Amino acid sequence: MGAQLRVYKRRIRSVTATKKITKAMEMIAASRVVKAQRKVAASTPYATELTRAVTAVGTGSNTKHPLTTEADNPTRAAVLLLTSDRGLAGAFNSNAIKGAEQLTERLEREGKEVDMYIVGRRGVAHYNFRERKIAEQWTGFTDEPTYADAKKVAGPLIEAIEKDTADGGVDELHIVYTEFVSMMTQTAIDARLLPLRLEEVAEEAPPKGEILPLYDFEPSAEDVLDALLPRYVESRIYNALLQSAASKHAATRRAMKSATDNAGELIETLTRLANQARQAEITQEISEIVGGASALADATAGSDR
Amino acid sequence: MAAELHVELVAADRSVWSGEATLVVARTTSGDIGVMAGHQPLLGVLESGPVTIRTSEGGTVVAAVHGGFVSFADNKLSLLAEIAELSDEIDIERAERALERAKGEDDASAERRADVRLRAVAAR
């Protein structure tokens, strides 16, 4: 076997191995998307009921709560960015980070300081590399977030917003995550979680136009709101974590699918080149034999004379 | 036959139980409360404790609920809890072990959780 042919064969073997790996990763991601989607669906009843309850208290009472009232001139905002722990997901993480950068820029233009809270190793690495300050970070659960994880993330954020701005608290809480629209479409979006705009919440509550009854609050509207709002934030963060996980798996699946396709194409091209090299080798051998034979014939013909 | 109300018991990550019931007893921060069909619209904060649901078939469903809310309107009752378990899902031995361990480690919240589980099983 010629040297060139051997090189091609080796490259084909290596690309084939890579293709097998990406194919396997694609299939794993596909099955995880389905699982993550199921989790999103399972968390919906709780979120819906909670939204209804928040709307009920918000519209049914005149309670003023620090979590629903806007500060007169907000000076500091917290931004929670959801990324993934692992890469190989196309533009998933860079889109989310870009979304966070744009939001930060906007907030800073409005004259607010921005505290970054980051979930996922990719986002943490991005900010650490640029030596930018991270207020708090969480890693290790982005593939399959649980409600306990969401609580862990929400805790310091709620604490920060309840503190006075002068003591290092924040006035606003924004979240940047990747919304799972469909298997093919995932978009990085930002949303303001707190202070709550009750009109927005009311819009989200599914049966529109429904008149909310006048509730009896047990023990009192303030206490109910006190207990309800942190749960609402947790549930929103939980939902965002789940959507982000589903989006990450969908992005991985797509990235791995195109990697598999590219590997297939590469193998085809390399096979053609290898065939060409083999054919060239055979042709050369034949011409060598023919050339050798005729030289031999010429030599013997010469000696006969 | 008594009037019925629709009950949804949902935890943060799943729907635990739903169906028709005649009476639901839950513990709010200001005391036990019983809700039957036609109750005034209500929104309350739940204490961790067992919730008893008397179903319209005459059976009883008991669930351990760890914090959350009860809301009632339009003859529909929603029980929202971060964690909720039906009493027949609870592993008694495990709960007892958890209680022992929590007592040993002085972990008040774990102790309360295990205690609520055991009380829910006892109320079955």
Q: Mind explaining what this structure looks like?
A:
The complex is a heterodimer of chains A (about 300) and B (about 120). With about 300 residues, chain A is α/β, with parallel strands linked by helices. Chain A has one domain (about 25-255): Pyruvate Kinase, Chain: A, domain 1. In chain A, about 65% of the residues lie in helices and about 10% in strands. In chain A, helix 1 crosses helix 5 (about 200-205), helix 1 (about 5-60) packs antiparallel against helix 6 and helix 4 (about 145-160) packs across helix 6 (about 220-305). The radius of gyration of chain A is 31 Å and the shape is elongated. By secondary structure, chain B is of the alpha+beta class. Chain B has two domains: about 5-85, ATP Synthase, domain 1 (Sandwich), CATH 2.60.15.10; about 90-120, no CATH class. In chain B, about 25% of the residues lie in helices and about 50% in strands. Chain B is built from two helices and seven strands, in the order E-E-E-E-E-E-E-H-H. In chain B, strands 1-2-5-6-7 form a five-stranded mixed barrel. The interface of A and B includes residues 50 and 57 of A. Strand 6 of chain A pairs parallel with strand 4 (about 40-45) of chain B.
List descriptors:
heterodimer, A: 305 residues, alpha/beta, Pyruvate Kinase, Chain: A, domain 1, 63% helix, elongated, B: 124 residues, alpha+beta, ATP Synthase, domain 1, 2 domains
A few lines on this structure:
Chain A is α/β, with parallel strands linked by helices. Helices cover 63% and strands 12% of the residues of chain A. A five-stranded mixed sheet of chain A has the order 3-2-1-4-5, sandwiched between helices.
Average pLDDT taken over every residue of chain A: 87
Give the terminus-to-terminus CA distance of chain B. Answer: 23 Å
- CATH homologous superfamily (4th level) name of chain A: ATP synthase, F1 complex, gamma subunit
Using the CA coordinates, give the radius of gyration of chain B: 15 Å
Number of strands of chain B: 7
What spatial order of strands do you see in the largest sheet of chain B? 1-2-5-6-7
Assigned CATH architecture of the largest domain in chain B: Sandwich
